[in-house]
Automatic annotation (TrEMBL), chains A, B:
GO CC terms, sorted: cytoplasm
Record lineage: Bacteria, Bacillati, Actinomycetota, Actinomycetes, Frankiales
Source species: Parafrankia colletiae
Any Pfam family matching the protein: HD_3
Signal peptide: none
Transmembrane portions of the chain: none
Protein name: Phosphohydrolase
Length: 214, 214
């Protein structure tokens, strides 16, 4: 296979110039590599319904939610850590792709695919930063700390808001039902009781308005 | 003008359901409003050259750079504050639009447009958070603190990396020259001497390769 056919969609047109400082060179190459997160599409659509959202935009939106909604965290959280976790939490999807939460077959294989992606992605960084970012990702996935539980709650709430704002969006397109949504959203209560209550209210309202099947 | 013709591109299809807690309602309405940042297009293209980057992706990318490049900050910075500043710094462009840095006419009017946008945007939040976010934005704009100088350095470096990675991208499209780039990038040295040195190296290399006019 020649170089041109190896270059999939999302590859930079050219690599960055080499620099004497190999640590800085690795960091900048990683920063360029993660540009690909902007091309990983999600099922959620923008609130105006114009197009699918991508993982980079989603991650920014979650980070803004962490800045604004910290007061509703169930336990005390370190907002700086929550921000870092949210910025990093979807990076593995650069290689593993986005998995639709209601696709049970894909979900079963998701963990293995994402671990393989993490093994490929994070070692591109200098060792200390590879360890730091992988550890934030593992913490987010394990949901055993207050920071991770709150971060996960925001990650669940955000597409719900977009689905509602688009008048049912990917719920109607994929035949998702209220009970599926509530089962999937249930973990939000571990991170924020107040946001979980808001979600049950929003889901009830979505059913009444026909944005979501009962 | 009826409601339908007032709704510009980017308006949510439907508003979020009302909730009894008016503070939470304002916060969530703001979170939905800033979804529009995903539709503010910049001149820079993604590294694979596929399309223009938007402000939300750009903000996420800068935040990742702050996580990874903090060690190069000229003065000690509070990464948590730098992150918040970067997440927020382009929000005013939801109403003011993106201003191309080499468009001198637009740049002259930019400050007034962005102040008007800030007056419209931030008061949509509860008062304490409106003050907090506006103050972060003002600090970024004024560039008088170490956090702001470093944040600004990253904001300058990021499109440079994308322009190089696309083999000249918006430089060639808009007839930008090396001296313009270096004049615009000069402020990076206030935030990070190491990153400024990298920039001069990258610009020299871009000229040699024909990505940028001498």
């Amino acid at each position: 296979m020649d170089a041109a056919s190896q270059a999939g969609p999302g590859e930079p047109v050219v690599a960055l110039p080499s620099v004497a400082d190999s640590r800085l060179a690795r960091q900048l190459a990683f920063i360029l590599e993660i540009d690909k997160l902007k091309s990983v599409l999600r099922r959620s659509h923008l609130a105006d319904g114009s197009r699918a959202e991508n993982d980079a935009e989603h991650s920014w939106h979650l980070a803004m939610m962490a800045v604004l909604l910290g007061e509703y965290a169930e336990e005390e959280v370190d907002t700086g850590r929550v921000l870092r976790m949210l910025l990093v939490h979807d990076l593995v999807e650069i290689y593993a792709g986005d998995t639709f939460v209601y696709d049970t077959t894909a979900i079963a294989e998701q963990e293995a695919r994402e671990r393989a992606a993490a093994d490929r992605l994070f070692p591109q960084l200098p060792r200390d930063q590879a360890v730091q970012l992988r550890s934030l990702w593992e913490e987010f996935e394990a949901r055993r700390t207050p920071d991770a539980r709150f971060a996960r709650a925001l990650d669940r709430l955000q597409p719900l808001i977009l689905n509602y704002a688009t008048g049912g969006g990917s719920w109607l397109a994929h035949g998702v039902r209220a009970e599926d949504v509530l089962a999937h959203q249930r973990v939000v209560s571990e991170g924020s009781q107040a946001l979980w209550e808001y979600i049950t209210h929003l889901v009830g309202d979505a059913v009444r308005r026909g944005y979501l099947a009962a």
